[in-house]
From TrEMBL:
UniProt name for this protein: Transport permease protein
Compartments, as annotated in UniProt: Cell membrane; Membrane
UniProt keyword Protease present: no
Keyword Lyase belongs to the record: no
A single BP term in Gene Ontology: response to antibiotic
Membrane-crossing residue ranges in chain numbering: 34-54, 74-96, 117-139, 145-168, 180-199, 237-260
GO terms, molecular function: ABC-type transporter activity
Amino acid sequence: MSTLSLAPRRLRWAVSDTLVLTGRSMSHWARQPAELIIGLLFPVLMVLMFGYLFGGAIAVPGGGDYREFLLPGMFAMTMAFGVEASYAAVAADAARGVTDRFRSLPMARSAVVTGRALADLLHSAAGLAVMLACGWLVGWQWRNGLAHALAAVGLLLLLRVALIWVGIHLALVLRRPESVMVLQILVWPVGFTSNAFVAPQTMPGWLAPIAEWNPLSATVAACRELFGNPGWGGDSFAAQHAVALAVAWPVLLVAVFLPLSVRRYRQLSR
């Protein structure tokens, strides 16, 4: 049988194995609901803290309600914080030898990492739904119609897809669950050195360009534009092409880290 004729069978095999491993990850959430609930509620606490405790002291460039300015940023931050969960799950499996046992089974090599990625994306979609509901309850709303709102949600999930592969690759490299602290040291500065909470114009001159070109800032600015919420404006290239950059940055990250993750998984036993 030719390699070409085997391709559809291999694809079906890979998809089937991916769905099985996705179900495995979701069954863990069913057995440990407290961990799932805490993960969903943490971003809600962030919204309440920044929106109500600090919101009265922060002015939105050009005017507008700070909570409407804040919520798109919090949606993107929720996607960014999820990279820690991806890392922890993959690193735990690698440290306990689960990944090595998977490698010994007659299954598609890519299914372990793609199954984890799909499970994390479903978890993130649920978290984003909770955040959207929370935003609506505190007075946030989209103002440019449903089509633009769905496009913004798509950009948020695209960002999460990219960060899933970053987390998986780092976990396969380090293979130590306790090293998640290293990832937190990286994620939190990237998140706060963005336009999620304040406009780059309010930052020191040397920091503002870094915030504008932060991949997270591109998604936040694009979502504010699509949702019709107050934005930070500006005449820089990053400000004027936020939607294009919100697509380009995640696509670039996926193009780099997805093949690296699959390659690293295949090399684990060498």
